[in-house]
């Protein structure tokens, strides 16, 4: 039996070309046994008719906040209480902005403000609108307040552009809803904070020191945790990857910025996974202007960066901590030494700079170590490897420890 059987689902439809997909979504939700009531914004009515959604849901579709006939049957506050879950699909940039601002000027936004039930948002918009800092900040704010974000996906857009902004497919939304309601993801209800990518340590306005890291391993881990129902916050150094759909992604440059972003959020997380290749040193002085070539040699004085992982593990009430160890030789012994010295629960050792695996490539292999045990995760694609590592972390992770 589907976890949606006999559940009350309020589907909010806002204005966007993806509104046509809500018809299929209603059909799938009904087939899974859910009771579905649809609330449309005014703009949604320009893309799909209420009649279609009414026929498919078998319930009257609501559009108006001040509608005496409907309010007499089920008022907007009753609708807010009726819903076990509110799913807004598609959610336009405008609707997300209104939700973030707490504006209640139509039926759907009023219900979202009044409800005590989880609100899930499936964004759909032009890629430029999704990438705009205003939308990114609204999405991050909503996530911080507990709104669940699913998507958007990358791909070809109705406007002919390419990029992130496509609403997830109805079948994907259905699967996620089922997992969400069943709470069966191994990390459902858990908050995972991850670091990924390199850091850049500025020498002057045009040059920096850095480590080799594409972010692929860390981003794959973020996706694997999301697939297991976790709420994911990803603190990422500069990489050329799109942010994982559904994660709150914080972009940073230097180790000091990464440390601050982690410390600002670590109290709210259950697990901390440090996959970033953090530069161990930074220039003592950052030149205000481009350093000129004068002499044959140039000396640089470097100072140690803080060790973010060790700092988190040393907190009075640390989350479950998982580190990585990138080594060019003897990875297992060196990783074990790091695990003990930094006081982390688990560490994943990988060989870097060799013929296969490590940084920048699509494949990797890990030896994962913990107190009294270890496991080999053989060479495979980073996403598959991330799934295996997340399954192993789930075996070792005990909430409250
Ligand atoms: O990004 P990819 O191209 O996919 O490559 C993946 C990877 C090889 C970068 C990744 O698998 C990996 O090994 N990441 C850790 C790299 C590293 O910096 O390892 P380390 O042995 O120097 O550090 C040990 C641990 O301490 C790591 O968890 C690191 O994130 C953390 N650390 C290190 C230094 C520091 N100042 N702060 C930290 O938190």
UniProtKB/TrEMBL annotation:
Protein name in UniProt: Coenzyme A biosynthesis bifunctional protein CoaBC
Organism: Sedimenticola thiotaurini
Co-factor(s): FMN; Mg(2+)
Region ranges (Phosphopantothenate--cysteine ligase): 192-401
Pathway recorded for this protein: Cofactor biosynthesis; coenzyme A biosynthesis; CoA from (R)-pantothenate: step 3/5; Cofactor biosynthesis; coenzyme A biosynthesis; CoA from (R)-pantothenate: step 2/5
Keywords for the protein's UniProt record, in alphabetical order: Decarboxylase, Flavoprotein, FMN, Ligase, Lyase, Magnesium, Metal-binding, Multifunctional enzyme
Free-text cofactor note: Binds 1 FMN per subunit.
Record GO cellular component, one term: phosphopantothenoylcysteine decarboxylase complex
GO molecular function: FMN binding; metal ion binding; phosphopantothenate--cysteine ligase activity; phosphopantothenoylcysteine decarboxylase activity
Active site: 159
Residue numbers spanned by region Phosphopantothenoylcysteine decarboxylase: 1-191
Catalytic activity: (R)-4'-phosphopantothenate + L-cysteine + CTP = N-[(R)-4-phosphopantothenoyl]-L-cysteine + CMP + diphosphate + H(+); N-[(R)-4-phosphopantothenoyl]-L-cysteine + H(+) = (R)-4'-phosphopantetheine + CO2
EC number: 4.1.1.36, 6.3.2.5
SUPFAM superfamilies for the chain: CoaB-like, Homo-oligomeric flavin-containing Cys decarboxylases, HFCD
Family, as annotated: In the N-terminal section; belongs to the HFCD (homo-oligomeric flavin containing Cys decarboxylase) superfamily. In the C-terminal section; belongs to the PPC synthetase family.
Domain (Flavoprotein) ranges: 8-179
